[in-house]
Amino acid sequence: MSAPVIVGLTGSIGMGKSTVARMFRDEGVPVFDADAEVHRLQGPGGKVVAAIEARFPGTTGAGGVDRGRLAAAVLGDDAAMKALERIVHPAVGVERAAFLAAHADADLVVFDVPLLFETGGDRAVDAVVVVSANAEVQRARTLCRPGMSAEKFDAILARQMPDANKRARADFVVATDTTIEETRAQVRGVVACLRAREAR
To answer: Which pLDDT belongs to residue 199?
Structure first.
């Protein structure tokens, strides 16, 4: 049996990527959520907690990594961010390989990765789906999040490839500044197209 088609799912903050990932799951497609994996690895007893504490003292506790303190230590500091990525990315890679092994009999799998292009992860997938919405919708959604400020939003955006560039490099674009039903129809279309391509 051939290996699954690997779909990279990405999109900038506030674009609705988590909603689209759930829609892929609803279509029976296994989804590896890189952000959720990072939360688990950084949670209580997580595999990267000790290494993060060693590099960024005072950013962890009994509950694992204190994400607020860690964000304050790395946001806007490229060297610190790269040091954090050197700790986290290999650990996520191990979990991603285990996910692939567990779903080796699937026809499609999705890697949900916020910084897919920024980390070069697009080179490891067979197709890329970019989730997109207009800038006003994106900003309004993001600023509604607990603990979010305009300054933090701008700092996060500065680390992400512009939406227009992502859309230009995508195999498929799923718009979320529309109704849920229309977005779901787009996801179903992507799944049908990829399955038809695989069946050839």
So the answer is: 66
